Amino acid sequence: MSTVRIGRQRSPLADGDAPARDGEPWSADPYADALRSGRGPLFLRRSDGWLLPLDVERWCADADAADLEVLRRCEGEVLDVGCGPGRLVAALGARGRRVLGIDVSEAAVERTGELGGPALRRSVFEPLPGEGRWGTALLIDGNVGIGGDPRTLLTRMSQLLCTGGLLIAETVPGLDLDERVLVHVTDARGATGSPFPWARLGTPALLRLARRAGWRAVDQWAVGGRSFVALRSRSTNSTAEPPNSAAVSSSQRVRKPSGGRPVAEA
Predict the structure, then answer these.
(1) pTM to 2 decimals?
(2) Pairing state of beta strands 215-223 and 226-233?
(3) 34-235 — its CATH code?
């Protein structure tokens, strides 16, 4: 895949950052333990007891065919929101694409760093490097559900992207689903994290919300039983950070390697 030239644009990766909040639900022990081991089983448990399996093994593996199709469509510099253990960040970096992953989980950020990918422990709703200048933002592995309010999340994504920037989101395949739920992370032993709001959207529901929020649908596709939507914001972004932001501190630069999440239908 060819690398998009940035020209005179200032890199979003050159900005400063702020401390992350503690106590995020995705930092709970069951999730962190699963990422560190690379294995499940792991679930989102709904308040009615329904378990939604989380595909930890796939998240911790190399990018698969569906992931590679997403990466092929990326433009400019890429922000992976909820990057998890970093397979997409690492794959984009290996292709010469400038990329940053963000995740509220310390274990996710650590694992991304071990793959040689840059990542920050940060919520998408906190101040982020390069606001208003990212070429592409990703909401993969069910991350369109972050915060439990997709319209608010879509508004936030439009603030992060440059004018005409691309948002690629993964949706629940085969369903016109618009579900807002309270969930917590749990494992097979019954260990749980704190409850938090989440959302699950099929493609038709996401497209309806996106139109109302000022996005234009440019493509939709399915690969390997997974479905995706590509959107562009219609409005000019006026939230770009000033050019004198501080550089990322050395303590937040990721380590290089020493050697070489969707919610599934239950």
Answers:
(1) 0.81
(2) antiparallel
(3) 3.40.50.150
